[in-house]
């Protein structure tokens, strides 16, 4: 185990369960409540995703966390120490406990890769030889050992973000805060950066807070997710649960791009004629989704329903099923109760003629 790994683990063992804790944090700008009573915690070693529409309050939350913005009221604690009310000087060492990576990398173009990575250590007063040794160690961790003497302009977007990650880890933070860090990257590069973050999370036990509008990012690497809307938390929980059974309308619409939807031509032909077939959206998560659910349904109802669309996906290794089913009016009530008894959540979307 290298020195960096062991020091992060030592820190992890020394502290409490929550790296960050927010209690009833409020911040207004005139009439706008950017944060309207936000309480959340980021547990040591987890990856927490925060999602929300534009204007939901994500940037304000980040600025409150790194001390650039002060909340009007409420409490923010980093590793058990309250930061609200601290002077700029007392805030500095706590601010260094949070490493940040950004959408546009924020590297210094006139400095080499190793100088960029070593910069936070220079600010901390480390001697040159020591900080270059640490930069080499971190560049190895992010797979860029051969690029120490290169300049940012000579790197691809993915490589620049790897440098950003190495720099964010240099001062040995308790938390890595990722602010839309993959939003400027193509899908393949995004996947490789997410794999690196996941690897660092499991190797170093590093806690990561991901702020993103990309649902795929949260789905791929986060353990838990918090949904912000108009400055409030409207939903939170394990990613597989929230993504398989979103309750808040905001969450449903944020996830509409990555969850199966009723085909548009059928959605547009739905009626409210109770004599026609019922169109149901059925969500089921956990072991029952993996196969038994459809089997049970066909055993119980034989040919009495039609599968319109949907299937089984896997989120955080949990099977998650979403099916759109049409069933005759006479069997609909019985099918809904049967599915609910199996643990599914059922929504009646409308009605279609039986040939649709
Ligand atoms: N300095 C400011 N002055 C006035 N209003 C502000 C200020 N900062 C944020 N707001 C308002 O607070 C609300 C939350 O903004 P914030 O930037 O935190 O949202 P966001 O979720 O980060 O949005 P985006 O995804 O577009 O960056 C918005 O209505 C915004 O217009």
TrEMBL record:
Gene3D superfamilies: 3.30.70.260, P-loop containing nucleotide triphosphate hydrolases. InterPro entries: AAA+_ATPase, ABC_transporter-like_ATP-bd, ABC_transporter-like_CS, ACT-like_dom_sf, MetN_ABC, MetN_ABC_transporter-like, NIL_domain, P-loop_NTPase. One of its GO terms (molecular function) is ATP binding. It holds the Pfam family ABC_tran. Residues 20-255 form the ABC transporter domain. It comes from the Bacteria. The keyword Ribonucleoprotein does not apply. CDD domains: ABC_MetN_methionine_transporter (cd03258). Keywords: Amino-acid transport, ATP-binding, Cell membrane, Membrane, Nucleotide-binding, Translocase, Transport. Belongs to the ABC transporter superfamily. This is D-methionine transport system ATP-binding protein.
